């Protein structure tokens, strides 16, 4: 009888692997428009994360040969640091995230994680140690528990609940009539943008990566939800290295360091206070945003 079941086990495993691959692809699309094949060098070792640091070293990159997007970009993110990347639309913020995930390789220069050049280690090992909370998370038509558990194959119920607590969505789930068994997605309960992002945070917590990349939602969340999510992210970021691609300045004020990108160049770097005192591009963006917020109509 066990002989009979083995192929089924295998099928189950293949199915789960393919399914996991599909959602990875889907999440990837939030970061990448056209994924380009990069390959592992033969016999490449897995990345061993000794220190969760990130370093861009004179990185040049363009999607097309005649249009350079990142122009000799250099910066470091130290272990445990919370760094935000800001800059005008099209400056290259998401491109940095795509390169860090090695969806593309730089034209020249190097990207190092834990001191290792990304082109010298396997992509799988790299991606398993960097968690992404994308702008728009993909949910399966399955239970909310399953959707969190997807963060790590074989997670136990108590681990799933701990991740949900960490992402501040446990109370919400426990109030649902079917709790963690509640079906979500197309045919089930529709989750709001904020709730979906919390599921993504819970998934990432379960995966427990030493480096987390937050791609902040551009517009989906109202101010209060955004503040609550930011609070959750701050708690999650404790003891981890985090890189936040920020589309609104209100969310970066307490980052350890803010990198200001303009047309693919790092033009300023410092804390919120330092950058305001510097009276450069960041200060200008901050004033403009404050003026825009003041002019916004009051919610009715
Ligand atoms: P935003 O704040 O608007 O999201 P961003 O700073 O994240 O902007 P990127 O998405 O990194 O900007 O894009 C930088 C530039 O690269 C843009 O000019 C964009 O048109 C270009 N670009 C992005 N993806 C591709 C692609 N797949 N192929 C060609 N060009 C691309």
From TrEMBL:
Subcellular compartments: Cell membrane
Keywords in alphabetical order: ATP-binding, Membrane, Nucleotide-binding, Transmembrane, Transmembrane helix, Transport
Domain ABC transporter per the UniProt entry, residue ranges: 54-288
GO CC annotation terms, alphabetical: plasma membrane
Keyword Transmembrane helix set for record: yes
GO MF term (any one): ATP hydrolysis activity
Portion of the full sequence shown: 306 to 605 of 605
Protein name, as recorded: Metal ABC transporter permease
Coiled coil location: none
Broad class of the protein's primary localization: membrane
């Amino acid at each position: 009888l066990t002989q009979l079941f083995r192929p089924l086990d295998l099928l189950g495993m293949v199915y789960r692997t393919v399914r996991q691959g599909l959602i990875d692809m889907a999440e990837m699309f939030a970061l990448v428009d056209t994924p380009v094949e990069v390959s592992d060098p033969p016999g490449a070792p897995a990345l061993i994360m000794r220190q969760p640091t990130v370093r861009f070293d004179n990185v040049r990159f363009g999607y097309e040969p005649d249009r350079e997007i990142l122009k000799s970009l250099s910066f470091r993110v130290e272990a445990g640091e919370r760094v935000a990347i800001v800059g005008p639309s099209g400056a290259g913020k998401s491109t940095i995230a795509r390169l860090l995930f090695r969806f593309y390789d730089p034209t020249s220069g190097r990207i190092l994680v834990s001191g290792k050049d990304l082109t010298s280690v396997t992509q799988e090992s790299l991606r398993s140690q960097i968690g992404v909370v994308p702008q728009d998370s993909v949910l399966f038509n399955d239970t909310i528990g399953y959707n969190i558990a997807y963060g790590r194959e074989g997670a136990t119920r108590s681990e799933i609940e701990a991740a949900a607590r960490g992402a501040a969505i446990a109370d919400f789930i426990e109030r649902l009539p079917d709790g963690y068994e509640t079906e979500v997605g197309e045919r089930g309960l529709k989750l709001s943008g904020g709730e979906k992002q919390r599921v993504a945070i819970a998934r990432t917590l379960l995966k427990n990566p030493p480096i987390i990349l937050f791609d902040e939602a551009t517009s989906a969340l109202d101010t209060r939800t955004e503040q609550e999510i930011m609070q959750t992210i701050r708690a999650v970021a404790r003891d981890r290295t985090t890189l936040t691609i920020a589309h609104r300045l209100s969310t970066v004020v307490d980052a350890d360091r803010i990198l200001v990108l303009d047309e693919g160049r790092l033009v300023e770097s410092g804390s919120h206070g330092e950058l305001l005192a510097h009276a450069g591009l960041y200060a200008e963006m901050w004033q403009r945003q404050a003026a825009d917020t003041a002019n916004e109509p009051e919610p009715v």
